[in-house]
Amino acid sequence: MAIFNKKSKKKKNHDDDYEEYYDEYDEYDEYDDYEEYSDDEFEEETYEPPKKSRPETSNKRERLDNTMRKQEQEAQQEQVAVIEHLKNENQQFQKEMQRQRTMAERLKAEVENKQQEIDQLTMRLTSSSKSKETIIALEEQVKQAENLRIQLDEQLLDERNKCIETEKQLRQQDLMKNQIAEVLMEAKEKAQQIIERATIEADRTVEAARHETKKAVSEASIELKMINQEAANYHTRILRLQSETSVLMEELLSKSSRLADQSLE
User: Which of 207, 198, 119 has the alpha carbon at shortest distance from 156?
Assistant: First the structure.
């Protein structure tokens, strides 16, 4: 429909040019600039205006038609090229969004796996012995979990940067700006939601593991203090018993010595 209107408009312009050409030609008269004189001063003469060059005008019109047809063909070719270009851009954008969704799902799966590992680690912290070496090993595992969370955050940031780069590339396109902007905004919001959910889950997981580790370390420290206190009390009782035994032995030896002396007398 737009092409038909374009053709009608061009044809109308062509007719206007044709009429304008003859209008300008008719307006020109080499005798218009001369003053008029009465019939008494000059004899009446018959004047025949110059004939208009119809063949030359026909050639001009034919050239104009050819030019307009050529421009119309070029416009149609350009329109086809633009549509093909937009299709290619849309396909590339869909592929990029699919890749980003796949990456987000993979990262989410890794976060869930890490959550399971941290849960297992928490169970081990609860059920294992409270020795110093075990606590140090558990703290090392927590550090590794935190390092892994940092790596996941870096990957998420990299995906966010890629999304921003994709947005910049799409914004550079001059055609179909409104549609591209709408698709871009939806993709950005979805990617942002995925990134935020993954970040929140990772933060919660690490925070829970850190809390459980601190709790286990605190309980182990209290238990060690109690064991040390009991050992100190036991040592004190042994020393007191040893002291009491020594006194008793001395008393027995003294009594034995007195009895021996009395027997000799």
Answer: 198
Cβ atoms of 187 and 94 closer than 8 Å: no
**Ranges of each domain in the chain:** 80-243
Angle at 100 between CA 95 and CA 104, to 5 degrees: 150
Distance CA 187, CA 98 (A): 10
Residue with tokens 């297992």: 120
Predicted model pTM: 0.26
Joined together, the tokens standing for residue 69 give 């047809």
pLDDT confidence of residue 257: 74
To 5 degrees, how large is the angle CA 243–CA 248–CA 252?
150
Work out the pLDDT band at 71, boundaries 50, 70, 90.
Answer: confident
Q: Please, which pLDDT band fits residue 22 given cuts at 50, 70 and 90?
A: very low
Q: How many other β-carbons are positioned within 10 Å of the β-carbon of residue 157?
A: 12
